[in-house]
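User
New here, explain this?
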Amino acid sequence: MNIKDKIINRRIYDDQNLIIADTDNDSIEKTTTHGNEYKNATEDHTEPIYNQETYNSTDFSQIEKDIKSNETDESQKQLQSILRDKVKSEIHSITTFLFNKGKKISDKTILLIKSDQLEDLLLAHGDLCELIKPATPEAIKYLERCIGLKQYLFSPIPLVRNFIILALIAIASLLGSGLSPDVNAEILSKGILNNSGISLLKNLVFLCSGAGIGTVFFLLSKLTKEVKEATLSKSDTTYYWSMLIMGILSGLIMSEIIVINQESLSEDVEMNRLIFALLGGFSSEVVYSIMQTIMNKIRIALS
């Protein structure tokens, strides 16, 4: 049913109510008048209720436009209210961060913050974002929520806490696999192709643990810096977990590709695959860049 039909039905309904009301008033007079007179009185109200010409002359399209316009205005006001609350919340977090850092806010920005107009709040938000660079409002809100949670053993920030636990697991794995008699410099020097069975598995666990230690060492140092500068956000979680896997793979690649003859070195210098696994895990981005450069040169040579 469209708007036009709704208005017509409403008017018909109102007219019928008026007829019922008039009929009730005439029924009171029934006690003092003759039955035939009452019948004639009630028949007077059987006039046509609905005049098609009157309703056809009504501009229903304009009424429909007015209703839609009112609905649009209400939705826009609701969106502005939601946006205003979000901006105010971020401004509060940013100002708290600036106060803790001891940074000064200009008088112009303070006046804009006190305003309740959305335009002024957006201008104040922009000025505050310039003051907190390289930090971002998203990172500040994320760290604020994490710190507000209950205290944990290592850190209230989930990503930092998980990587600390992973570092402890990698160290325990390295020590546990290193205690095996199948893991030594002589067997490690054979590589993957010259080893097999449980001995190969133990040596791979040993190398991957070393690569994991190097990777976690690098990522924890980077996480500490980002937390201090308030540049860590929830969206960075995927990046750090990907870097962990890349670091382990990088350490394993370097430990197998790079081979140094121990006889050519001094007796005081010992180079084995564990060192390259640690370095590869720590410098996974460098290993990726080197491999990417090699592939680009091969592509250019083949093209």
The chain has a mean pLDDT of 76.
